[in-house]
Design brief:
- The structure is a single chain.
- This protein has 567 residues and is an alpha+beta fold.
- Among the domains are: 92 residues, Orthogonal Bundle (Helix Hairpins), CATH 1.10.287; 109 residues, Immunoglobulin-like (Sandwich), CATH 2.60.40.
- The chain has a nine-stranded mixed sheet with strand order 25-28-23-22-19-18-24-27-26, with no helix packed on it. Strands 2, 3, 5, 8, 11, 14, 15 and 16 form an eight-stranded mixed sheet that branches.
- A hairpin with a 4-residue loop joins β2 and β3.
- The longest helix is centred in the first third of the chain and has 43 residues.
- It is extended, with a radius of gyration of 43 Å.
Amino acid sequence: MVSPSSKHRVICLFSALAMGAFSAPAMAADLKSTSSIASVTVFPQGAQITRKAELVLEKGAHTLIFNDLTQKLVPNSIRIEGSFDAGVEIGSIDTRKIFINTSVQDQGERKRIKDEIERLEDEVAQLNNTIMSANTQISLLQNLASLPAQPRPAPTAAPAQSQDWQQILTLIGGMDPVLERIHKAQIRQRKLGRNIKKLKKQLSMHRSRPDGRTEIKVHVLAPQASKGTLSIRYQVRSGRWTPFYDMRLATGSKTKAPELQLVRRAAIAQNSGEDWNGVSLTLSTSRPQASTSAPKLRPLRIGFKPEVILGRAFSKAKRSKAPARMEDLMLEAAPAPMAAARPKPKKAREREAKIRSYGFQALYQIAGQVTVKSDGTGKKVRIGSDTPEVKLKIRTAPRLDPTAYLYADMKWNGKTALLPGRTSLYRDGAFTGPGAIPLINPGEDHELGFGADDMVKVKRVQLAREKSISGLISRSRVDVQDYKITVKNRHERALPVTVLDQIPYSEEEDIKVTLLPATTKPTRTDDNDRRGILAWDFDLNPGAEHVIRLNYKLEWPKGRKTVIRPH
């Protein structure tokens, strides 16, 4: 028997153990967790992914395991943040590459395809039985039909022969439904064969294969039971967006000023290994994949090239690698390129992005939830639209092409820069062709060409050309050319016009080029620093005609030949 004192000590011991169990901290636990992509910020090259995970944590230390991240993420870019209703400490983060089997969903799809193939093959077998049965029936009918034609043991009367032929015709007529049944069965077999072939191709695409993923383990400590959200951010290199534009010009009329509508769009693509399904999408002009510092120039040493005698270097010094060319050195010093980017009911309105500018970058928050598949398929979204200031003008170079071209001088006053990209140009609702724009910062001007303007007529004719020899002692050849250019405006309003033409220029002292007094004084010579290019600027009223004369003289020594080449 146990004494009362001993019994009391045992009870106290159990009580102490129980109290210790309740007061001790909870044991660490591994929690397999799932997350989903909530938002994506896409750069001209690369993207930042943000995943969200809703968690309920018991008191104690835990290891949260996530294995639903793409294998293509940049490992050192992973960042973890959290928001909980009680203080939770985030400790270390472990990452590793893993391979998992095909998902249960894919396995279920394989089973469905296999069952369908089996069902169709059973139907093909049943049709084979139908055709065999019908062929047997036809053989029997053919044998019965041949019986009256066989010799009889004794002659019979004519009425009996007539009755036999009637039976033959009846049997032959009975073959038609059987033949039709065979024909329909064969048609059905061909259709089933095509469906089986298609399903087998689908089955081959659903082969069970390991899927590469990134697994991360997040070690956290919860001082008490807590509920909250964990954010996982990381970068991938395979996302990108490229700007492109619609430029829609309304040329206006006598009483209505011209107007330019600029629509900004973006083409987005990615093959990061995970689909972005119904995410909040932001486009950024920042370029994290580009170089963050200026390139370093390498010293360049110049020296004499070793003389070569009979194919061997004269110098006895050890021959080293051939020195790099200047072009190669400049190429090395250059920064790495970016891994290269309707009827009258109400007209549907395209949703536009919210634009935020931060000086060094602009962010475009795309409206609504966006899905971008991880197969490189392009997703096109609209960023916004603006109506920049615009002025129209005409430019023509009749020496090469007697066509007047319409240009729009655009002044960009938007909040953010227009990135370089392709444009689609429209004039008065008609597509005039593709184009491109460079980087245009707020406050800068840019010129856009909108094609031929048939309402402005241009003509260039040669009035005269005289070749002669001048001088008594030092004789020279002389070539005098005279041209007339006419421009007529058939629009209802005045337009500024620029006419471009040219004369040769010479870098030889013995060749002289002279503009003669009959020439209409040009507004600019050597236009845009191009030697010999002349420009005449003027305003042309409706119905008015403007005439320009170009008269120049070439002189060079007799006995020498000249040649004019583009430069």
